[in-house]
Amino acid sequence: MLHTCWHQIDSPVGALLLVGTAAALERIHFQRAGGLAPDRDWTHAPATFSAAVRQLEEYFDGKRSRFELALALTGTPFQRRVWESLRAIPYGRTISYSELARRIGQPRATRAVGLANGANPIPIVIPCHRVIGADGSLTGFGGGLQTKRALLELESASPSARDGPENAEFGQPRLPLGTAGRVGP
Questions:
Q1: Strand partners of residue 131
Q2: Is 5 within 8 Å of 21 (Cβ atoms)?
Q3: Domain assignments of the chain as residue spans, ordered by start
């Protein structure tokens, strides 16, 4: 069994705690007030996360639209199916929870899809922030709605956001902040 390691980084959306092993990233946790404290059995090992840190920096600089990291996901088969579908949402696009449920072949499972989305252990890399309410409103996000808004704004402002043919069928383009950025009903 591989030893669990951790490293905390600063980012434009606040401190992020990275957790994993030498083989794979297992978790990203938003370190707001009352953040996750590393377990005393974990080892602080910044070098373990050098690829993840570099790719997150590139993402926040608008130079990366897709992550190429080894991930170790622990969840139910349903959760894993939702998380895999999240990875297929193109950069610069959003879809609704109901559309995500339809895409995994369970159109009546919108609530379950929302719960699986909320249980995503590796936000940003697995882009759960790209899922919005059917009316275009921002809804729940583990890092907070302000963080979700900031991530969507980052992607919409980046030159990496493209409306090419490969993205045309998947979801809607980012809406201006006054639309997709509004919070609540």
A1: 95
A2: yes
A3: 5-60, 77-180
- Indicate which residue of 16, 56, 101, 128 is catalytic: 128
Alpha helices in 17-170 (DSSP H): 50-60, 77-87, 97-103, 110-118, 145-157, 165-168
- Which pLDDT does position 164 carry in this prediction? 41
What percentage of the chain exceeds 90 in pLDDT? Answer: 73
128 assigned to active site: yes
CA atoms of 68 and 184, how far apart (whole Å): 34
Q: DSSP class of residue 42?
A: S
Share of the chain above pLDDT 70, in %: 83
Distance of CA 35 to the CA centre of its chain: 18
Rounded mean pLDDT, 80-98: 95
- Say whether pLDDT at 5 is over 70: yes
- HSE-CB of 66 using CA atoms within 13 angstroms: 7
Q: Which CATH number is associated with domain 77-180?
A: 1.10.10.10
What's the whole-model pTM score?
Answer: 0.84
* Strands across the sheet containing 16-20: 25-30, 16-20, 5-9, 43-44
Cβ burial, residue 9 (10 Å; 0-12/13-18/19+): middle
CB 122 within 8 A of CB 26: yes
User: Please, which residues have CB within 8 angstroms of residue 19's CB and are 6 or more apart in sequence?
Assistant: 4, 5, 6, 25, 26, 27, 28, 29, 38, 42
